[in-house]
Amino acid sequence: MNILKPFGRITAMVALVFAAISCNTTDNSEPELELIPVNSVTVDGYTVSLEVEKEIETGANYLYWKVEQDGKIITPQSITVNPMMDMGDMMHSTPYTQPETAEEDDRYFKNMAVFIMPGGMMGSWTINFEIMTQTDEVISGEMPIDVASSWKLTSVQDDNDNVYFITWYAPQKPVVGNNDLTFLVHTRESMMNFPVVENLEMEVYPYMDMGGGSGHSTNFTNPVTAGDGFYNGDINYSMSGTWTTSVELIVENDTLPEVVFEYSVQAE
Ligand SMILES: [Cu+2]
């Protein structure tokens, strides 16, 4: 009967080892990238794929680029992109950055594009890409994409017809309680060039219309410039439901007309 004792100990040790392993995997705080395929294009034996975290829409989007050769992921030296909307009688680009190796997963290159118009009746979006392989081979092509419309982008003009594109960057999904409140601001230098605008003053005001002429605001801090066109504040929603947030930009002491974002806040 004594013969069972060591087995018991071994079982206990095995259980401990398993507990340690499963602890490790669940404790891993890196959020898992969950990407949706958008489109892929094959050029000269290289398959270039575009993947995203959420459906591409007006406002800010992160685009993840993957290049494969013979079914294997390769790491190019660089990927250069240029989003373009063909509106029939004219073409224009949109604010965007160039792809760099994704911190979350180095099999991908990642960039941001802020789409200023949805695709559809008005025109269609394509992302032109140029890839330099490790052997200096250049692969170029174009990737057609759909851009849905969203509530997260609006624009305003000043008296000199300068346009400012205001993107609601965060919260992407507003919830009751405290949320980081982040905007991005770009202007248009030409149809191909949309630089960020830093050091503006911004005045926001969140409001919930309760009907019958009554309504209320909630606690918030006004966003302030954080560099690269980002403006960071906070918003603490007291209730779920439909909210508006007005935004005024102050450009060199000139207060531009107010724009309003309207969206729904979830109960968490
Ligand atoms: Cu357009």
UniProtKB/TrEMBL annotation:
PROSITE patterns named among the record's database cross-references: PROKAR_LIPOPROTEIN (PS51257)
Residues in YtkA-like domain copies: 161-247
N-terminal signal peptide: 1-19
InterPro entries: YtkA-like_dom
Taxonomy, superkingdom: Bacteria
Keyword Transcription regulation attributed: no
Name the UniProt record assigns to this protein: FixH family protein
